[in-house]
## 1
Amino acid sequence: MGLPDGSRRRTPGLRREEVAVLADVGVSWYTWLEQGRDIHVSEPLLERLAQALRLTPTERAHLFELAHGRPAARPTRAPEAVSDTLQRVIDAHPYPALVSTRRWDVLAWNAPAAIVYGDYGQLPVGRRNGLWSMFTQPERRALMPDWESAARRSVAGFRLDAARAADRAEFDALAAELASVSPEFARFWSEHDVIDQVPEGRKALVFPEVGVIEFEHVTLTHAEPDGRELRVSLYSPRPGESTARARKLFRLTG
């Protein structure tokens, strides 16, 4: 645990002095915190306390609520894959479905999504990212009649996600790499715009095989047991001609 060896105790748990050592704070200061005195508590210090006390994600969030009156910054860590259950759920969706992280890394997709966006499984893990593909894949750009407007909104949404992260280093690393290969991304990123991504919307895509398909899409939040959050994006064609074209594109029968 990072504590020096000492005598055995009769009761479980950490002593006040031990919590202070693990959180790298003074014993007196930690005592004042326990007593509810009016003292300043920074986010890094709260993170150290959460780790020292081995708080669950729910307990960590409650600690931040008590100390700052607002939720903790969202963690950026993400699993390397989704659960079998979640994969089966998106596989059962007849139209495109994607699961991504808050850094826009794509973790899972179904067969219709591979038809639209390409098979992410053929890309290196580090390149399975929605923002990266938007700016580096000409075939994806060709699908979008209003690419520049959509790309600008995406960059603004990504910047807001970075600002909300507990540690934005991975966001900034991706932005720096993208700026080095895409002048357009570098220009949009330098504008410092931010926008909150709406959970519902419409998107028109042009397919050489069938023509224009208008999709409606929703993005749902899936909370992992350890507190990490994933985004599940589901697409469905609008009723009428778009549905007929989508069924043809995805070879749906019945």
Note: Strands lie at 97-100, 106-109, 200-207, 211-223, 229-237.
## 2
Amino acid sequence: MAPAEYAILAVTLFAAAGLQGSIGFGAGLVAAPVVGMLQPTLLPAFVICLGAVIGLLSVVRERTAIDIRGAGWAMAGRIPGSLMGTWLVVMLPLDMLTWAVALSVLAAVAASFIGWKPVAHRRSLLAAGALSGIMGTATAAGGAPMAIVLQGQEPARVRGTLSAFFLAGSVISVLMLAIAGQVRAEVLITLAAMCPAVILGFLLSGWLNRSIDAARQRMLALGFSIVGSVLLIARLLLF
């Protein structure tokens, strides 16, 4: 990537880390379309590794609010979902996978706007975990199913539970992608270069949690996701 592209990526990841640190999800929604435009060969491994880094930071900060049982049921669904997502990464050509990123992000945003609020019980958590595993491993944007199931709960509990789920799920997805040969040196080098922007964005989220309400922050994340997805689709259609 050119220096200007690195700068765009750094700003995007700064915003992505700040948003996820504030509302519990959204880094993949924000980052995946931009990464797909700048350097599609980094998908999905780069954004999944990013999720692991932000998840670790969030778990440390929100550790007292985590619903361990709920995260455990969701992880039971995430594992088979991640296997399916890995298969899609290996089998699909790059353009098709890029389409999958854009369309899955738009679908997740649409679901959030519809406002469906299922009850967070064992079956719904298993299903959400499985869908998140498929979307997260194949497209690096798998936060929406879990966020929809957990919406309406106390903000710190949502952030903590989502963070624990995403950390464990991201580690599983990265390991599966590594076995499939999808975690290349390019991914790790770019991630290391972007870590300062990610950490600064996450630190910003601590201030955002005190000064901006969760509903407004959620709308910002969804709006950013729509713009990124539309730009990604435009790139696929025009170039």
Note: The mean pLDDT is 85.
## 3
Amino acid sequence: MNEQTAEPDKAPEPSEVQPPARPPRVPVFNLPPALFFSLCLLIVIYAVQALVLTDDAVSWLLFTFGFVPARYVIPLSQQGLELFWTPVTYSLLHGSVQHIVFNAFWLMAFGAPVVRRIGTLLFLFFWIFSAAASAALHAILNWGDVSLLIGASGVISGLMGAACRFAFPAERRPMAVAHLNARLSIIDALKSRTVVIFMLLWLVGNALIAVGIPLVGDSDQEIAWDAHIGGFVFGFFLFSLFDQAPRPPAEPTVTEKDMLQS
């Protein structure tokens, strides 16, 4: 009988050591495109205003696109058509570097989850209507005043109000990515301790502004706290008109939880 012999098993050659995979780079500002272009638009407008235009041109820009409550007590035949677009265009103008930097910070913080949730087109409409709501309350409380209102703070306040409806989930629900949370009803939002605390802090901040104690910036520069409130109320109460996400099914009651079915 012929026997076949085999060579002893060779020790496996050590494989080449592979360098550890580099983790994917995470951008510092992971902003939705619509929000990124909104910020770029605000910055470009202010840069042109501050660096390119003459003083007379800046005055024309602010008068033509800024919001002035007095326009609504003057007959249309005695003025231009600015009263039709200024309730929105004022939100694209800013008065100083500090003004636009402060607004840009809050716009990134609260605009990003709202844009991711409702999309670009609805975000555009939300910007338009929240700006108009802010200007409307400002005009009502300052009827006939000749002061000039500029800045995106009213829109940002609207985004804050909208975020209260989904970014802070009810305590009994697990935390998820902000824009994927279920939308809370107005009642549920007002029952959330997180939402209530946030709203109280926001109201205290605006109350301080109303009595002349700004949180940041120059105390000599008047801040339109009433426009902030107009935007916040709009965003909080009317966000469901822009939100396409379905409401989650209602949780079973205690009786339903304890019921057994065969």
Note: The two ends are 71 Å apart (CA to CA).
## 4
Amino acid sequence: MRLGIIGGTGGMGTFFARVFREAGWEVLISGPATALTNIDLARTADVVMVSVPIKKTMAVIEEIAPHLRDDQVLCDLTSLKAAPVAAMLRTRAAVLGLHPMFGPTTPTLAGQTVVACPARINPDQADLLLDALKAGGARVIEMDPAAHDQLMAVVQGLTHYTTLTLAGTMRRLGVDLDTLLAVTSPVYRTEMALVGRLLGQDPALYAAILQENPAMPAALDAFREAAAEAERAVRDGEKEFVDLFARDAAFFSAYIEEATEESEALVQCLATR
């Protein structure tokens, strides 16, 4: 099988080119500096994979749409699914949305999660792609595109928004980071490491995740309401705080034991460095 990756010279494109070559596929790539154009690739590949930034994805799909056939498979790797899948469905190709839940610096697929959104594709075509991912050690979870975006508003969007809010709060307080880190225990240093990690990345990626997901406004509304509720509990006294804590603990009850074990393992790793 011949896989063509549009954006194959980028981080994620390069990662998946390696994955599929190792699985025995012939891989073609197009990028800003390649002789092979996106249209050349769309005309010749059995499977066309779009691996470009979120804001460019729709334009690329529209560019190649007239050149795709009904015997081809079209998929994308963006972290949003509803809009790209809808755009891909306007082509003649079979459609499978993909979202790797990891970054391109990950060394292998082993232990990683990939969300798959089969939209218009027969099981044999889907299995051809997904089996290559599973063979590399990935866990594949199938999901509806709209449900995916709603979940990503929490998994990615709300997490990133909270991290940015924490960073902005510390900046406003004028916190001395060197002094803070000197007195920070491993568990809280993990929190600080996540803040620093995010702020060391490309802001355009996070802007797109937060701004392009149609489910984000509802998530942000819920965040503001929860923040106001927590502020009232902090100001109003111990009983109110304990009541709020109990409600949230009840919601997380099925995960608390696992979360404690996982976070303890992380703490021990940091403590023994």
Note: The chain has a mean pLDDT of 94.
